[in-house]
Design brief:
Helices cover 28% and strands 24% of the residues. It is globular and about 65 Å long. The chain contains ten helices and twelve strands. The chain has two domains: 197 residues, P-loop containing nucleotide triphosphate hydrolases (Rossmann fold, 3-Layer(aba) Sandwich); 61 residues. The protein starts with a strand and ends in a 12-residue tail after the last strand. It is α/β, with parallel strands linked by helices and 318 residues long. Helix 5 runs parallel beside helix 6.
């Protein structure tokens, strides 16, 4: 079966004056039809830049240096901007963590969703059907963004993203600004839309528990690299990369009430000043001399791809 999304050896760099520096290096991942793939990592790891690359919406100072991004078998990096306008919304759509920033305050939310529908005779009916799918009352159609809660605004954004039945939905931290109950409702809605429309979802989050409960596969990103990619159940039960291990170890639900929760010491390095060798070695409890000298290439352990010298040396990373 043809994959909905396939990213191969993606490399993205940024230009700062006369200098350029790597943002993404060697990203490889895929999503099958009706499959959720989560990207997890701290802020600054490269998750959103990966998503923006898929949508061809990178900032002007960023550029793809090499690699392929296939949507339903078509290489979008070879497409013109005119061709991409037909891809966005119809083959791939994206929702963000601050829906109020993407809704026009001067128009009703219903008119904004309906604007994406081309067929004039069916626009209203199709929009109302999508409102029903995302569990919004019909009267919401006539309301303005400021009249809606954050959770309702996010449902409007999902309706807008799904109105043309895309194959891939990219959800960039869609629950971050929501309370726990509302966030859970959004996640359940995304699963419902997947089941109903055969949708694939690229789900971006910093929450490892949320990723494991929602996605079939998880990719852990650090400093622009995918350091571990595996089945969600396996990666949560037996993490291989030290960074994955630390992300799981600091989840609050793993501790008794009143216990001190561990954190991942240090911070993600600036892309303009990455350390030599493995980018994680400054925070890694298992580092050896080799880690300070070289970047580990990908090693396959069962169904998991991991970049760490603990599991061998399959070649220098890019």
């Amino acid at each position: 079966m043809e994959k909905t999304l396939e990213i191969s050896n993606l490399e993205v760099s940024a230009r700062d004056g006369k200098k350029s520096f790597a943002i993404l290096r060697g990203i490889n991942l895929c999503a099958e039809p009706n499959q959720a793939v989560a990207l997890v990592g701290e802020s600054g790891s490269g998750k959103t830049m990966t998503a923006m690359s898929v949508m061809r919406l990178l900032p002007r100072n960023l550029a793809v240096d090499r690699g392929r991004i296939l949507l339903r078998g078509e290489d979008i990096l070879a497409m013109s901007e005119s061709q991409m306008r037909h891809i966005r919304g119809k083959v791939a759509s994206m929702i963000f963590q601050e829906p109020s920033s993407y809704l026009n305050p001067l128009f009703t939310v219903g008119s904004q969703v309906m604007e994406a529908v081309k067929n004039g005779e069916e626009r209203f009916e199709k929009t109302m059907k999508m409102f029903e799918d995302v569990e919004l009352e019909r009267n919401v159609y006539f309301q303005y963004p400021h009249q809606l809660s954050g959770g309702m605004q996010q449902r409007v954004m999902i309706a807008m993203a799904m109105i043309n039945n895309p194959a891939l939905l990219i959800a960039d931290e869609p629950t971050t600004a929501l309370d726990v109950t509302t966030a859970n409702g959004i996640v359940l809605l995304l699963r419902k839309m997947m089941d109903k429309y055969g949708l694939s979802v690229l789900f971006i989050t910093h929450d490892m528990s949320l990723a494991a409960s929602f996605a079939e596969k998880i990719g852990v990103m650090y400093a622009g690299r995918l350091v571990e990619f595996s089945d969600a159940a396996g990666i949560f039960k037996s993490p291989l990369h030290p960074y994955t291990e630390k992300l799981i170890d600091c989840l609050p639900e793993r501790y008794a009430p009143g216990s001190r929760i561990r954190t991942v010491e240090g911070s993600v390095p600036d892309f303009r000043q990455l350390p030599g060798g493995c980018p994680f070695h400054l925070r890694c409890p298992y580092k050896i001399t080799l880690c300070t000298q070289r970047k580990p290439g990908p090693t396959l352990i069962g169904t998991t791809t991991v970049r760490c010298f603990k599991y061998g040396d399959d070649g220098q990373d890019s």
